[in-house]
């Protein structure tokens, strides 16, 4: 898909939303996505270089205690999955590459039910992601993370549904498969997301 050039907006109203960059979704994890470790490192470099562009940096995490039918011993990899991002395990924590990210807020989702979008999660103070962004005066979001075909897609679509101007930085995310990535980009673009390489953002 052809990438759309980035749009200008004021840094005061822009947030970076880092979706589910956790060891569980990277090489060696329970739901490993090829290229996950590289994306984690690239996000860390981008955030360190461009922190001044953002009024707010938010991370989201899958954070499963007992998500019911979301976990299965015989997963279909559509609605059911092997156990992953289990609270209390290193796989559920943020990827070590993000140790110096300096996020303002961390949102966790999916304790007792399936959750794909970051907007299904809550901050430590109980606010949903939508409220976190609204309280900070955010009007624009840049979405990055893992996996493009699943939680990045869901988060971007929910951001658009809330009226937020939304960009997906395509080099700072990776899909489960190329085919699923292409479908996700098509869906996000059709909904109004701007797809752009971080070097052009």
From TrEMBL:
Residues 15-198 form the Isochorismatase-like domain. One of its GO terms (molecular function) is nicotinamidase activity. Its EC number is 3.5.1.19. GO terms for biological process: pyridine nucleotide biosynthetic process. It holds the Pfam family Isochorismatase. InterPro entries: Isochorismatase-like_dom, Isochorismatase-like_sf, Isochorismatase_Nicotinamidase. Keywords: Hydrolase, Metal-binding, Pyridine nucleotide biosynthesis. Pathway: Cofactor biosynthesis; nicotinate biosynthesis; nicotinate from nicotinamide: step 1/1. Belongs to the isochorismatase family. This is nicotinamidase. It comes from Cellulomonas oligotrophica.
């Amino acid at each position: 898909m052809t990438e759309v050039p980035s749009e200008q907006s004021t840094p005061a109203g822009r947030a970076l939303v880092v979706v589910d960059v956790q060891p569980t979704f990277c090489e060696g994890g329970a739901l490993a996505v090829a290229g996950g470790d590289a994306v984690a490192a690239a996000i860390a470099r981008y955030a360190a270089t461009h922190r001044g562009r953002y009024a707010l940096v938010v991370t989201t995490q899958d954070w499963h205690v007992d998500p019911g039918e979301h976990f299965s011993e015989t997963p279909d990899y559509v609605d059911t999955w092997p156990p992953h991002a289990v609270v209390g395990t290193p796989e559920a924590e943020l990827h070590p590459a993000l140790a110096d990210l300096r996020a303002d807020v961390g949102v966790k989702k999916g304790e007792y039910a399936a959750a794909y979008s970051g907007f299904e999660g809550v901050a430590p103070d109980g606010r949903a992601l939508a409220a976190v962004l609204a309280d900070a005066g955010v009007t624009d979001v840049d979405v990055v993370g893992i996996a493009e075909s699943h939680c990045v897609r869901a988060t971007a679509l929910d951001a658009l549904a809330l009226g937020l101007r939304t960009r997906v930085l395509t080099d700072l995310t990776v899909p489960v498969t190329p085919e699923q990535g292409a479908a996700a980009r098509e869906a996000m673009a059709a909904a109004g997301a701007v797809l752009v390489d971080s070097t052009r953002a």
